[in-house]
Amino acid sequence: MNANPHRSIQQHYFTREREGVFRTNEGFDTVAVSPGLDPAFIKNALHPYCFYKGPRDLPESGDGPSEAAYPAALSVYHADNGDLVIGQTVYTSYDFTGQRSAFFTHQYVVPSERKDEWLRHPERLFALGGFATSYDIAQGKSLSEIHDPSAVYGHSEAGKRVETDRLLARFGLTQEVFEQLLASLMVSVTNRRKVYVVLDAEAGQAEPDARQLMRLLFDCLPYAFRRRLGVLTFAGEPEGKQHIHVTFLEKGALRQADRQLERDMLFELPAGKTTGAESAGTARRLLDTIWTLRKEPERLQELFAFCEEALLGQDAVQSLSLPAYDELSVLFGIEQGEDALYDADRVGVWKALGVYSSGPGAGRGKPRLRELLVRLLRLETADVKRIADRAQIEAMLGCEACLERGERALLCRALALYVLRAAAGGDIRAAAPLLEPVQQRPETFRAVFRELCGLSPRTAERCATFALERAEGARALQTVLTFWLAYAGALPVTFLAGETLTAVKRLLGKESPARKTETASALFRFFDELAEREGLQRYVDYGELMKLEIQLGLLEEVPLSELGADDLVRLGFMLDPPAPELLPHLTKGHRLTLELWAAVYRVLTLERGGEAQAEAWLAKLGPLELERAQAFLRSAWDDGLSRSVFSRIAFGFYQGGDGVSGSRGSYDFDSLLDYLAAQGGKETVYDFIEWSAAEERFPGARGGIDPHYRAALNRYFDRYDKGAMRQKQVRQRLMAVPNAAFAALFRDIRQRQAPAWQRFALRRKKSTLLAAIVGTAALITLLLAWKPVVAFFIEPIPELQVDELPERTTSGIVTLKAQATDGYDRSPGIYINGELAGKSSVSRDIVLSSGSNVITVRAENKYGGSSEPVQKTIVLESPIGPKLPAAPPSGINSGGR
Fold it and tell me: End-to-end distance of the chain based on CA atoms, in angstroms?
């Protein structure tokens, strides 16, 4: 709610009258008010501060001393909406009745937009003499608005300036106590601790003294604290009001201990005693500066104006922070020419400049800070003895955002000079790390490094070398190169190429052969994609040179025997296919190694349809290289075999040739089958045979089966798996191979592995078939007559199974289920209590009699064989209710089947 929408100063009178603005009966109320004040604002922001606590030793009735003996009380505070309220309350001996005392309050309400006119001139606050002390309500309830503040400026005793030290001496304030009091006032606006001050004077003089002291204190307070601090210049006893932070009490008011004041800050100047005061150490530099300038109010205003400018755009917490003002007082001192303060803490100064130069209003909105910053930059560049550490450079970079273009150039020159000066001792390890914080701002780094190259190209090159030497691992080297190639463009490409090559060789030289391929692959891809990056197109030849050197280094330093299959597959960047530009740079040995790697790579990455190409690569190899390739491929699958790698495994036994002519085939099939059996067992051999039947490398020239492969299979089954065809599962599996030539081969093997009688039968098929038919007919006849005959002699016994029945029940009927089986009689009879109840399976309801019931079940077949009887005993318990009728003696329900 805006209490004063106008820009004029409003007035408010409050006292005891027969009626007021808000009351229709007698009592304390507003008696007159300017029209610009909102009623809610009057009640909430003005009324609570219309009160009077007179001296305790003076009576409050009208029969005591004259009104002059009662001091006025000046209140200055800030309402919630930001308006400044300046009020004075005076004691009145008689109210409108003439029978009782009262008080009269006159308040000025200054709009928040205009209150700095008063706060920056404390004499207007504490020397204000234009307060009314009474009012006749017959004049009406409306007061005029004040458009010209000078109309209310008065000339009270507090308006007379007294020499500062004389005033301090009069109040008994030493430097220590004065600084404590000032610090306490500043912290009171944020920590809710009140300040109570007792002056060494009687009540009549203490209040004017309080105004003079507060004028001095206000002169020494930064503006942000003035905009929050509330003051009451007299009270007979402590009164904790929300917006009142410092209260002056009459002498002796703190005589008795008051637990409510334990948290507050108390200054009893007559006794020279302070309790709970804020330590001056929390803002040592600020308070010392204020004390030094206490006699120079103009310079104090310069200090506070400097702080005000620096805090522009900062949050409210920062603008009321004592440490912040301590930092700003240091900056102010440096601005005033105290360079020793800068040399004492250069890092702290630059950090403070970075904090207060940033945010809204930075740059031209803070000219004094910018001027100070530029002066310090010139100081740093001009003094050749000035060096900096990493912390200072980081702090200086924090100021970059507020600088103009020319000033940034000065900052970049200063940073480049730090590096140059640090390198002057010959140890680049002291200089190069100074560039690391600059790298967090790439464009600034570009400018700094360009400056460094202009000052000392050799130092710039040594810094680049240092950065490359510190890169550990391919990823780190890529990060370094990406940055330096992009932002250190002032370096010659030939220099970068040489240093990069040294770094690459260093990394590869530290790795194991297996790790070399991983590192080399990552670096090759990086250099291959380098020219595609934005701004790096000029590094095409540089990238090609690095790729060439990586490949040559691998061919020279990495033997195939120390690589694994995965390691070789990673070399696809140089093998799929080998780059034509690589070939002219190869020695004969390098060329042989490349062909060997390429052939093995083709096999390891083989996909269906690429067999001919893989054979072509293997065919290029000489005998020694082919043997090395075979050894590598055979060891590639030591961890396990599966159908997916059969095509590649076979190349581990490739021997050249066309697979038809000559005494040897294209593959060493015997060794291949032995390898499969040793690595995966017989099942793996069977899997391979099934797979090979459909593989074009293994059938013969006319679609049959390669004769060398046929011979190898025969030898394998004859030597190592003689019982394979006697196993039905294996025999069916191999005979089902969808290749006629393979099926014929397995029939021959089956015949060779069959028992002697089977081989004899197979040679005499017709006679054996006739004998088998006659024997089968005789056997069927015998079986048809066999069971009855056997049953007559052995007298079989049927098997009986009776389902479980309850041992006790209250139900008069239970259901009995039983089943009978017999290998010689399909329908044995089931008897319950001696009576036939059914054949094979029965389900019969049994009526129970009270007490114990015994049920006997047995089975009997047509040959007279009878099972052991099964007895079940069930006790029928009497239920609650009428009794069931007695059961028939037999226990069998006549309705059963």
Answer: 102
- 3-state secondary structure at position 834: coil
Of 698, 617, 626, nearest in space to 665 by CA: 698
Strands of 841-847's sheet, edge to edge?
Answer: 799-802, 813-821, 841-847
Closest CA to 801 of 860, 837, 834, 841: 841
Per-residue CA distances from 305 to 214, 294, 356 (Å):
20, 16, 14
Q: Using the 8-state DSSP alphabet, how is residue 79 labeled?
A: -
The distance of Cα 427 from the centroid of its chain, to the nearest Å, equals: 39
Cα–Cα distance between 66 and 204 in angstroms, integer? 12
- Rounded (10°) CA dihedral 523, 526, 530, 534: -140
847-863 burial, b at 16+ Cβ within 10 Å, e below that, comes to: bbeeeebebebbbbbeb
pTM of the entire predicted model = 0.70
The residue with tokens 């102010």 is 332
- Please provide the DSSP assignment of 696-730 as one string: TTSS-TTSS--HHHHHHHHHHHHHT-TTGGGSHHH
**Of 555, 629, 617, residue with least CA distance to 590:** 555
3-class SS at 832? strand
**What b/e readout covers 716-745, taking b as 16+ CB neighbours within 10 angstroms?**
bbeeebeebbeeeebbebbeebebebbeeb
* The two structure tokens encoding residue 174: 């030493």
φ and ψ of 86, to 5 deg? -120, 115
Residue position matching structure tokens 């029969």: 63
Cα distance between residue 595 and residue 382, in whole Å: 64
DSSP letter string over 718-768?
HHT-TTGGGSHHHHHHHHT-S-HHHHHHHHHHHHHHS-HHHHHHHHSHHHH
Q: How far apart are CA 312 and CA 357, in angstroms?
A: 9
Place of tokens 């009145």: 92
> CA-CA distance, 140 to 17, in Å (whole number)?
13
Residue type, 626: L
> Which H helix or E strand runs over 527?
helix 513-529
- CA separation (Å) from 585 to 440, 498, 548, 582, 890? 41, 18, 9, 6, 114
Counting Cα atoms < 13 Å in the Cβ hemisphere of 60 gives 8
Q: Please state, as a whole number, how many other Cβ atoms lie within 10 Å of the Cβ of residue 288.
A: 16
SS3 539: helix
Mean pLDDT by 10 residues, the chain (897 residues): 65 95 93 95 96 80 68 96 96 87 95 92 86 92 89 61 88 94 95 93 91 95 96 91 94 74 91 91 93 93 95 90 95 95 96 86 78 95 92 94 91 96 90 94 95 95 94 92 91 93 92 87 91 82 91 89 87 88 88 90 84 85 89 81 84 70 62 88 88 77 77 88 84 85 86 71 60 67 58 75 89 89 87 88 88 90 86 82 45 38
